[in-house]
Specification:
The protein is an alpha/beta fold. It contains four helices and four strands, in the order H-H-E-H-E-H-E-E.
Length: 112
């Protein structure tokens, strides 16, 4: 994502229709498949953390982004389980560590 858009995204993700609709759809679907225990969720390309904040009610959330700005906005929201990483390379999580892995709004930002 262009670095000048992170602040705008951070400010809009609680009320702008695109973010709200996406969050509502994801939450509705995840609640259908929620096991008896809490879910462990990884959001690759978590951006400024709006989706992670919504997912906290479902269990443990972890985020990865390749932007320092995005990670700093996540931290500003109190999200401590967010790391800066090169998401074009393999991530070092254990197999089967997460119940759900997301990569929302990521593909359109990949340069070919």
């Amino acid at each position: 994502m262009r670095s000048n858009l992170y602040k705008e995204c951070y400010e809009q993700e609680t009320f702008y229709w695109w973010h709200r609709a996406k969050q509502n759809i994801v939450l509705k679907e995840f609640k259908k498949y929620r096991p008896n225990g809490k879910l462990k969720i990884l959001d690759i390309g978590c951006g400024t953390g709006g989706m992670l904040k919504k997912l906290e009610d479902l269990g443990s959330v972890f985020g990865v982004d390749n932007s320092k700005k995005a990670v700093s906005f996540c931290k500003k929201q109190g999200l401590d389980n967010v790391i800066l990483a090169d998401t074009t390379k393999p991530l070092t999580f254990k197999n089967n560590q997460f119940d759900i892995v997301l990569a929302l709004d990521v593909v359109e930002h990949i340069k070919y």
